Each structure stands twice: as C-alpha cells, then as structure tokens.
Amino acid sequence: MAQSFSAMVKEELLHQPEQARHCGIAETAAMVSMSGQLSEKEGKKQLVIRTESNSTARKYFTLLKKTFNISSIMSAGHLTNRKKNRVYALTVEDSVCVDQLLQTCRLSEQEGELQLADELVIQMDCCKRAFVRGAFLASGSVSDPVKTYHFEIVCADEKKADLLCGILSHFEIGARIVSRKQHSVVYIKDSSQVMDVLGLMGATDSMMQMQNVQILKSIRNQANRSVNCDTANIRKALRAAERQIEDIRLLQETGAFDDLPENLREIAQLRVTFPEATLADLGEMLDEPVGKSGVNHRLKKIAQIADKLKDGSEGSAAVRDH
Questions:
Q1: Cα 199 from Cα 218, distance rounded (Å)
Q2: Digit-coded pLDDT (tens) for 219-238
Q3: What ranges do the domains of the chain cover?
Q4: Fold entry, domain 5-202
Q5: Burial class of residue 279, CB neighbours in 10 A (0-12, 13-18, 19+)
Q6: Exposed end of the chain (fewer CB within 10 Å): N or C?
C-alpha cells in the first residue's frame, strides 16, 4: 500500500537532524500536551503518551531519553472503539521523572488537560518551530496536494488551538479554528500557507514536492484555459462565417449579388468557397491582398446590404445605397 503524503511528511520530520536541547524541550512540550495524559498507579503519578505510529513512538522514546535522560516503557495495543488501528503507548512510571518533565516543559494539568503554563519554552523562533513540529507529529495531518490543499492539527480544546494559531501567526501563517467532535481543529487551506508551514517545521523535501505539484496544476489549468479560449474563438468565427454566407446567399437569390461592386463580389465568392477560412486567410487570397480589417469592412458592407433586403428594399436600390 502506497504511503500517504501525510505519512511522508511525518517520516521526513522524524528524521530531522539532532537539535539543541531547548528545541527538544519545546517539541516534547507539544508532544506531551497533545497526546499525553496523567494517571495514577498505586498512588504514584504516571505519564502515558499515545500514538498510532510506531515510528513516532520511537521518536518520543528517543526524545525523552536524549533531552531529559528519562526512560519510558513502550507497549502496543488497540483502543476499544478503533480496533483496526494499533496504538503505541509510552509510559513514564517514575513520578519524580514525571514532575521533572512537566516542570521543564512548563506544563500543568488544567481540567484534565495538560496545558502550557507559560510560553517560556517557546520564546525563540527555533523553539516555536519545534513546538509546531511536535504538535503536528502528535495529532496533525496534511492532504495529498494532488487532490486538495489542507493542513490541520487536532487539539483537545480551544486553549491549545489558540496557542498554535498564535505561534503560526508569529510566522505570518494565517490558521483558523473549527470545532469538530468536541475537538478544536487548527487548519490551513491556502496552498502557499500550507507550503510555508511545511517549511516552518523542517519538511523541506515535502514542501518542494508540493510546490512541484502546484506548478504542474498551474500549467495544466493554463493549458485548459488556452484550449477553451481557442475553442470559443473558433466557434465564434464559424458562427460569423455562417451568418456571412447566409447574407451572400440572400443576395444571390434576390439577384442583388450581380449588382455588387467587384471588390465585394470577390470577397463574397471566397467566403462561400472557403467557409472555414479566417479573415486574414481570405485577405491573402484576393487578387490584390488586403488585411484582416479590410476583409471585415467588406463583409460588413455585404451584411448591411442584406439587412436592407430583409427590411424590404429593392435589390439594386439596396446595393446603390452602399
């Protein structure tokens, strides 16, 4: 089964070069805030972090070990309401380590949710980028750009969503929030802004791939517009030629054709003989070639004479008037 674009982006982010400790703290803060939960076992505090990706679970394990020197226990299972999806859980069982982690990440439990108590860990731009990356790895997705442009991060509450929107706004990326199934979803639909956020997180290869898709789409759309425009122009020219031939036939049927000046008879005969020729082509076929405007002027005169005949004027009189 082919890997989704969203999975490709996450895979790229999971293999980012080793970062400074302060950025590791910011990324961990986002990760724990988005997918971590405090619990108690035998009266001791525990932290459980869940993800549906084995690769992401390994990333979390490494991040905790390298950034905080905290060991976690990794296990796998299924959520009862989503039996098809395997869930990986990292558990930090040492309550002292849990407190150390929460304090360093500036996280506190509020109404059952782990929230950023202050923005100390995301003061620097590099840490803000790491925080967005951690949040996306924990609960984000991005659509295949071939189909549509859509980036989102699902947050447990509006407070977390507001924090993310504020960080993205700092980088001039306009994200919006929508409620979905008791969650607050931060989303971006503008293609250039989606590319900006991919670059912001460090997914430069995915950003370039999306840019290539956008270029191909633009070329294809431009080609389609050009074909549609050409088709419309051809249809318009053919309808005009049909009307011109109808006028000429009227002149022939009423005997007014023979009374036309030589230059009008010549262009009329060419129009009937070559109904699909352009005005420029007709002009080149004349004994004394004229330009497109000259041909158009002559055909308009023929149309005016035909209109006179339709209004009831005598054939020779209608010709003399012109």
A1: 21
A2: 888 888 888 887 888 888 88
A3: 5-202, 231-320
A4: Endonuclease I-creI (3.10.28)
A5: buried
A6: N
